[in-house]
């Protein structure tokens, strides 16, 4: 609860899936020109969002939106507004505590990134999960820990650029024709690969060998790992065109022992704890510096 008795709002900071330090994420979308953004007849863009007495203009939000892709402009605007609010909350707290002078940039950090890093190092306690914590998580999530699944694949690539609508249609139609013939006579696969495939693997009868997840393009990967052994009944689409695919073997990954994944679990749990601590810290900052206007922006995205 906030000091005025109303429920505290949580502004999310996502760190679990990020490869960057929190300080870099918080300052990762600084603008080249602070004044850039939509204007109306040369007048400054309006402001509907405030952190304390600091306005965040629609120009700033519009500039930030390019870094927040979403299904609608309203969702993108709300994501951008939240990111700017978080940045301003952290900036104001750095100023209040007088941390700017002691924040020396490390490596390629900007001054603001360094200040946020120093702030979070000071205010957020690092908690390393215990061995028991890690073991408990392992026991509760054993199905997540196994060596990669593998499939053995042959394919015939019928190439067509992604922007060639006619070429894509023809490639798909050709793939369906080849599949119909192969269903009647599977031994023709090697011959068809040599004659029709646009992939260098045609020299090996279309053989791609054993593949693990992530070794091919994402869209191809997602589809072929759902297939069963045998000739796929439909052409598989990718950025390169359409593929006639035969899965010749599937090997499920072997379970991994706790010792093999203990470090991975520890890192994950530590990030989860840090995420919760950051959320609690942001709630405290929102109680110190009133945020106005964000509810209305988020309501438009609901």
Automatic annotation (TrEMBL):
Q: Locations of Basic and acidic residues compositional bias?
A: 26-36
Where do the segments described as Disordered lie?
Answer: 17-42
Any stretches that span the bilayer, and where are they?
Answer: none
- What is the name of this protein? peptidylprolyl isomerase
**Catalytic reactions on record:** [protein]-peptidylproline (omega=180) = [protein]-peptidylproline (omega=0)
Instruction: Read off the InterPro entries from this record.
Output: PPIase_dom_sf, PPIase_PpiC, PrsA_foldase, Trigger_fact/SurA_dom_sf
Domain named PpiC is located at 148-249
EC no.? 5.2.1.8
The UniProt entry's sequence similarity note says:
Belongs to the PpiC/parvulin rotamase family.
Q: Which residues form a coiled coil?
A: none
Q: Which GO terms describe its molecular function?
A: peptidyl-prolyl cis-trans isomerase activity
Please report a single Pfam family linked to this protein: Rotamase
Task: Report keywords, A-Z.
Answer: Isomerase, Rotamase
Q: Out of the domains of life, which is the source? A: Bacteria
């Amino acid at each position: 609860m906030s000091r005025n008795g109303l429920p505290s709002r949580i502004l999310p900071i996502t760190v679990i899936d990020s490869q960057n330090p929190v300080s870099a994420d918080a300052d990762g979308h600084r603008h080249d020109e602070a004044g850039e953004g939509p204007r109306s007849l040369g007048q400054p863009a309006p402001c509907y969002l405030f952190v304390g007495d600091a306005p965040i203009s629609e120009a700033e939000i519009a500039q930030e939106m390019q870094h927040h892709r979403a299904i609608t402009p309203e969702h993108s605007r709300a994501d951008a507004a939240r990111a700017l609010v978080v940045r301003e909350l952290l900036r104001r707290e750095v100023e209040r505590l007088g941390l700017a002078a002691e924040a020396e940039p490390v490596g390629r950090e900007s001054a603001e990134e360094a200040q946020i890093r120093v702030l979070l190092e000071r205010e957020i306690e690092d908690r390393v999960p215990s061995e028991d914590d890690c073991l408990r998580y392992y026991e509760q999530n054993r199905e997540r820990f196994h060596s990669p699944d593998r499939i053995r694949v042959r394919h015939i690539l019928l190439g067509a650029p992604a922007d060639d609508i006619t070429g894509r249609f023809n490639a798909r139609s050709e793939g369906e024709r080849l599949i119909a013939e192969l269903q009647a006579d599977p031994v023709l696969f090697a011959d068809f690969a040599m004659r029709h495939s646009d992939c260098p693997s045609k020299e090996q009868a279309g053989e791609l060998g054993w593949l693990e997840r992530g070794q091919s393009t994402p869209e191809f990967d997602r589809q072929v790992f759902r297939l069963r052994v045998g000739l796929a009944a439909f052409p598989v689409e990718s950025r390169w065109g359409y593929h006639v695919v035969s899965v010749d073997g599937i090997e499920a990954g072997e379970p991994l022992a706790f010792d093999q994944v203990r470090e991975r679990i520890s890192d994950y749990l530590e990030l989860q704890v840090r995420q919760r601590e950051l959320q609690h810290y942001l709630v405290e900052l929102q109680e110190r510096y009133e945020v106005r206007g964000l509810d209305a922006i988020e309501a438009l995205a609901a």
